[in-house]
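Hi C.,

You asked whether I'd gotten around to modeling the 414-residue construct. I have! Everything is below, sequence then structure, no commentary in between.
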Amino acid sequence: MTSEQKQFIISYLNGSNSIVIYGAGYYGLLLSNLIGELDDIDVTVVDDIKKGKCGSYTINNDNSFNTITGTVVITIKDLDIATSIAQRLYAQGVTDIRLLSNRLKEFLDVFSQGGKNLQVSNYHRDDLLNRLKSFNWRKLNKDYIAYSFRYLWSWMKKSFMPSNIENAVCPVCKGSARLLCVNVWNYFIMECVACTHVFVANVPSGNAIVDFYDGYEYFTQNCAHQGITSLTDDTQWQGWLNSRMQFLDFFHILDSFYEKPAVVLELGCCEGKLLERLKKLGHHVYGCDVNAGLAALAGRTLGIDIRAGTLEEAGFQHDTFDLIIAIHTVEHLTDPHGDLVRCWSLLRKGGRILIEVPIGETDYNNPHHLHFFSERSLRELFTKLFGNISMVPSCFADANGNFCATALTVAVKL
């Protein structure tokens, strides 16, 4: 290893002295060998199947990574698979996770070809076929079999289908977009040259996104920093609920529904506590959330119709709701424009939609946000469908106590 190569690896590790490499394929073993040449750095390679001296950890076992400390580098090239694995590890308490970046991949390719004169594409093909031949099918569970075939399909798809990243268009205004950066998750962050909207061009598959939000763990991660640990202890929720109700009071949204209760839908309702408060005030409430387990639990606990899945899958009837609420949800949607069109069709004439989203967010390494709105792009998104739009700045405290700029927007279906 040359001094320049050594410096690159040291810079990439950023001071970590304990590295876990997830993926015992081409890039994983190359990176393991390179790091092994450095002093005082502990390297462990793990995979779902044993290969050489690799461990046999599995992402399908909830306790599989509890004993691992240090930085986890996922050296799997396929974005969907790598993201799904990263999200599962994050749910198990592993926070220092890095995916195979373009820069690291190029470095490893150059190092390998210069040192061994390997053809990377042939190596991938032969390595994949050898791994498939060596599988002991009787010992593999159904999740890993599905994972393996996804890997095979992804390899075939990327071998024969060109990338459309360069031709990505803005999901808000359909304008042309330019590449802003590639984040640590290998997401291509694009910026619209017309409305300034920033978005992820290579959105992971629906299954990979659902995997992250699945289970009760997401509720605990989302609420723990606010001092909320229980779904049923109302004393923990007072401050949180009061802030949500202030949103409604600011725009006088509920003022006209004292005699006739409103029919309310919350998109991305999570545990449903805001809906419970509105229900106690006499309104008819419904919820929708992709977290199937939490939706079922909240529905049973609170006695509210909370439907699992996307808004499209929920099956609500057109012209049903007086109010639709989406608090810190729209930035997570794969197709915010499409879901706003659905919201418009679900609202009665004169019905309102209230949302809050981050504004001017620059943490493009946030693995959960697929859209980074500006005030201009948010207004652009709403004016295509609604009239009488009101937008006010607000703020909220993140997990570290830092205040972040947001925008509260209410729009009316004319």
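If it helps when you're writing up: The chain has 14 helices and 15 strands.

Thanks,
B.
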